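Hi all, a correction to my earlier message: I attached the wrong file for Sugar ABC transporter ATP-binding protein. Here's the right sequence:
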Amino acid sequence: MTHPPAASSRSASAAPASGGGRPVLRLRGIAKAYGPTRALGGVDLDLHAGEILALMGANGAGKSTLVKILCGLVEPDAGTIEIDGRRLSISTPDGARAGGIVAVHQSIADVGVPNLTVAENLALDQLCSGRAPLVATRAVIRRLAGERAARIGLAVDLDARLADLSLAERQLVAIARALGDKPRVLLLDEPTASLSAAEAERLFAVLDGLRRDGVAIVYISHRTGDLRRLADRALVLRDGRVAGAFARPVDYDAALRLMVGHAVLQRRRAAPVGAAAPVVLALKGVRLARSAEPFDLAVRRGEIVAVTGPVGAGKSSLAGALFGLWPFASGEAELDGAPWRPANPAHAIAGGVFLAGEDRWRTSFFPASVPFASIAGTIGFPFLKRWSPFGLVAERRERAAATAAIGAFGIKARSARDPLAALSGGNQQKVVLARWHAEPCRLLLLDEPFQGVDIGARDDIIAAIRQRAGTRATLVFVNDAEEALEVGDRIVAIEDGVLRPDTAFPAAASSSRSAAPSDIRS
Ligand SMILES: Nc1ncnc2c1ncn2[C@@H]1O[C@H](COP(=O)(O)OP(=O)(O)OP(=O)(O)O)[C@@H](O)[C@H]1O
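and the right structure:
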């Protein structure tokens, strides 16, 4: 494959522009293969105190594997790791932490202890390392947890069970827990994937502070806006190898071109849906919580409405109610003019309403307890009855649907039988979305569909959503305003459980990731 011309700031190594001094972290020749898949093919990297390195790469390029090696979750096949010039052999997360390396992982589903409280999770590392007072009373745990929570302004009930928090809240808890260790090297893998702009900005302020304190940070994100705001330089991985290094000021257009292999196109949106199109979904006097104000909403056939607002505003609550996970506190939904009160997700699916949930491990990869669930099995699971009334033909249909999805969504996998656990995070997310592409529906609900998908893949996903949009109504729930602008024909704000119809406006006729709020026509 040929690469685009190199940017002037690109060099063959990852040496920092500022040069000077011994790196805090030095990697040489890090390699890792999973069976026949080469995840990393010999990566070199130098990281200095007080700098933030953007680690970029398309889905499956090897970024998470590198992070997992550095924090002791995966053992490399070859290569050396040095901290402050000393060779480090990392075989466990405790070993990494002792060497001053901590990470916040992209897949946080299994991070933390779900049945413990937020406070207990936050204090866990100190309690286990013997750095806490001998008798850990509730008050001691709350104090230790309170210190960690305060560092990032975490506004979560410390007595809540971790399992009861939303994905975004658990992401914030994971970040607060990692930062509590005052690391030398901090690795962040998609830390803002489910955060709103305000929460992300709070995190960035904390990272600015850590940079001033000399912490070396590796930051992985598919949100280029985050990288522009934070990173001092960038390293692009491609197929497990360093494809280029960019010094400050980073030329992100060139870095993205190098990453996805072609220019990132400006997106063109479809013509607005006219008032003649029939209303598919009508919400009338709906309350998401008893104390909230009621609101109305109408979504027409062919329309893609992006619902955006901060974490906890009620987006997942609205999506779940329409999918039969729980009822509205009050009010009515109508689908194609008839009352819509699904008793459970199976009824919703049978009635032509599909949801891709925010937390893929909890809501989409079921049965999540099947560790080797394949791409085909995951895509076919909701349609088992429809596809195989006598239990015979499902496997063939599943495989055909999964093979089509692998092509349409560019899922990086060897076959439809690959287990989900062998896919990179972004590719797992594409499977979640591909599932709901396999059958026609009346109402499609997508909750944070772009988590962890690279910028090239996001184009493909938006194209796939648009391709079928004309036959159904679509609601996309996103924290990120730029993503709302990219995907929505119309944007509706949600705040404190209330959709604000008076703030509903058509999205701009065309937009790119750099679209500013002033681009929105009201
Ligand atoms: N446990 C595993 N078993 C088999 N293959 C794996 C496993 N984990 C990762 N891989 C493969 O290794 C390659 C690199 O994956 P990795 O998760 O490091 O990519 P990534 O750059 O972090 O992608 P993303 O942006 O989607 O998170 C991919 O081809 C992936 O399918």
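Sorry for the mix-up. The chain has a mean pLDDT of 81.
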